Amino acid sequence: MALTIDLTDRVALVTGGAKGIGRGITEVLLEAGATVVTCGRSEAAPPAGADHRVCDVREPEAVADLVAGVVADHGRLDVVVNNAGGAPYALAAEASPRFHEKLVDLNLMSALHVSQAANRVMQQQERGGAIVNISSVSANRPSPGTAAYGAAKAGLDALTGSLAMEWGPRVRVNAVDVGLVRTPDTADHYGGDATVAEIERTIPLGRMADLAEIGRVVAFLASDLASYVSGASVACHGGGEQPVFLYVAQNHHVGPEQGESK
């Protein structure tokens, strides 16, 4: 029989779900039949069919009110996607302690606050629930210029496994370690289309992900198709990042006979 991702009758909350990667996730969940609520620190226009709430997910009290409001309006909460996050470029030696604290709050602690509030609801539901944390490849390799962000995402992957163990069998918790993704701002961020094309040549699949590809991984993890998947950090990065030494060697046409393998 054909396998489809069916989230009909599921209520989902996507933090930061009105723009960027979060918007792509919201669109896929809506396509799969879910009722979706997005949230952000300010008013925003989510994809058609979604509802948006204003909430600073770094504040536990605000998060508790957010989750209570979703349940009051929709009667349940089946899926949470902790997508809120990000970081501007800043060298660790120069950034202030407050800057680092804010990044950890946004990229790690906010996911814990939302997950705790959601878990209290999901544990009481016959069908339980699913939590998906949007992490990053920065969790698993050095992240120069975004050191606190990388450390927070490593913490998010660790948190995922711990919560899955504590909250099962009623609640499944997984993470998606996201690589490079094309958004409307990609070319501006990297300095133009030519630079983006050069970056994409370093990715084994030859391109950055599009937004829907991240959303489909999230939808799978939220669905019954992933009913025995919990505590996992799923890599969604197109095959990984090529080692710098190999990229340099290839660009200088260094063949096997010229290099040394170990």
Topology:
Blueprint: E1 11-15, H1 20-31, E2 35-40, E3 51-54, H2 60-74, E4 79-82, H3 97-122, E5 129-136, H4 147-167, E6 171-178, H5 186-190, H6 193-200, H7 211-222, E7 233-236, H8 244-251
Parallel strand pairs: 1-2, 1-4, 2-3, 4-5, 5-6, 6-7
Helix pairs in contact: 1-7, 2-3, 3-4
Tell me what you see in this structure.
This protein has 262 residues and is an alpha/beta fold. The chain has a single domain, classed as Rossmann fold (3-Layer(aba) Sandwich), CATH 3.40.50. A seven-stranded parallel sheet has the order 3-2-1-4-5-6-7, with helices on both faces. Strand 4, helix 3 and strand 5 form a beta-alpha-beta unit. The longest helix has 26 residues. The chain is globular, with a radius of gyration of 19 Å. It starts with 10 loop residues before the first strand and ends in an 11-residue tail after the last helix. Keywords: Oxidoreductase. It comes from Nocardioides bizhenqiangii.
